[in-house]
Amino acid sequence: MSRISLKHLRQMKVAQEKIAVLTAYDASFSYALEQAGVDILLVGDSLGMVIQGQESTVPVSVDDIIYHTANVIRGSDKLFVIADMPFMSYANPDQAIKNAARLMAEGGAQMVKLEGGAVIIETVKQLTARGIPVCGHLGLLPQSVHRLGGYIVQGRETAAAEELIADAISLQEAGADMLVLECVPATLGAVVSKQLDIPVIGIGAGSDCDGQVLVVYDMLGLTPGKRPRFSHDFLADTGSIQSAIASYVKSVKSGAFPNAEQQF
Ligand SMILES: Nc1nc(=O)c2c([nH]1)NC[C@@H]1CN(c3ccc(C(=O)N[C@@H](CCC(=O)O)C(=O)O)cc3)CN21
Ligand SMILES: CC(C)C(=O)C(=O)O
Ligand SMILES: [Mg+2]
């Protein structure tokens, strides 16, 4: 039980030390990411797209996340590991409790991540009351891509930005210990990070978030097709996977990533 604690992550926010997060899906990457100084691993449901070749994250199952989380856990000794709760695995609080318990007990995750705002507040209360650490996820919600009509920047209008800020506060009050903010204007990322006491990890949410996360294959230039504007190919700059990851960590810690072109 010597993995990085939530208390340590909260202290990093207070000390304004940026938190470097990457996705991981297997033991070999988990080991490499720990060696390179990453703080948190996210077993993202992005695995549906980058591992399984699906068109969205919607088809990912709880069993898929458990399998990959268990592999990631075996590859690292110290890193804090968050597992995504898949589409509809938290449709009501009872289902959420049952599935989150599996991600922790069978997968070994330290925290679970759920997409959404007001609609999941009761669920977050019930999970955290039972000792399950929760990471929220606001902004672009990939599990809602069929309603959103694409992977489009969120929170551009004042009303949407205000709703997002209110949701972020509600999640913190419901007991969430971390928040991922995806694809929102950098100004909104800055406001949310400042307003909350819990660490806010951005992906396409600007350089003022408390930390940054990317899909590991995106930052190695492996993802086929057009990569999101907020990502960067660190392997092209460096030449080895280990040095690319180390360069990402250094760039997040120094505030050099994301730069003006890598945010909205
Ligand atoms: N490989 C991969 N990387 C990711 O970051 C990722 C996944 N998969 N799968 C799940 C979601 C989907 N994500 C995405 C995918 C594409 C864009 C994208 O292309 N966004 C446009 C912005 C469009 C606009 O201006 O509104 C961009 O140019 O970056 C954003 C997030 C983030 N997540
Ligand atoms: C992109 C991150 C935040 C994620 O949710 C995932 O990898 O599934
Ligand atoms: Mg996800």
TrEMBL record:
Catalytic residues (positions): E182 (proton acceptor)
Enzyme nomenclature, EC number: 2.1.2.11
Cofactor(s) essential for the protein: Mg(2+)
Protein localization: Cytoplasm
Domain of life: Bacteria
Top EC class for this record: transferase
Keywords: Cytoplasm, Magnesium, Metal-binding, Methyltransferase, Pantothenate biosynthesis, Transferase
Segments crossing the lipid bilayer: none
Entry's Gene Ontology molecular function annotations: 3-methyl-2-oxobutanoate hydroxymethyltransferase activity; magnesium ion binding; methyltransferase activity
GO cellular component assignments: cytoplasm
Binding site for Mg(2+): D45, D84, E115
Primary localization class, coarse: cytoplasm
UniProt KW Methyltransferase keyword: yes
One Pfam family matching this protein: Pantoate_transf
Pathway: Cofactor biosynthesis; (R)-pantothenate biosynthesis; (R)-pantoate from 3-methyl-2-oxobutanoate: step 1/2
One GO BP: methylation
InterPro entries associated with the record: Pantoate_hydroxy_MeTrfase, Pyrv/PenolPyrv_kinase-like_dom, Pyrv_kinase-like_dom_sf
General function of this protein: Catalyzes the reversible reaction in which hydroxymethyl group from 5,10-methylenetetrahydrofolate is transferred onto alpha-ketoisovalerate to form ketopantoate.
Family affiliation: Belongs to the PanB family.
NCBIfam families in the cross-refs: panB (TIGR00222), PRK00311.1 (NF001452)
Protein name: 3-methyl-2-oxobutanoate hydroxymethyltransferase
Source organism of the structure: Methylophaga aminisulfidivorans MP
Lineage per the UniProt record: Bacteria, Pseudomonadati, Pseudomonadota, Gammaproteobacteria, Thiotrichales
Gene transcribed to yield this protein: panB
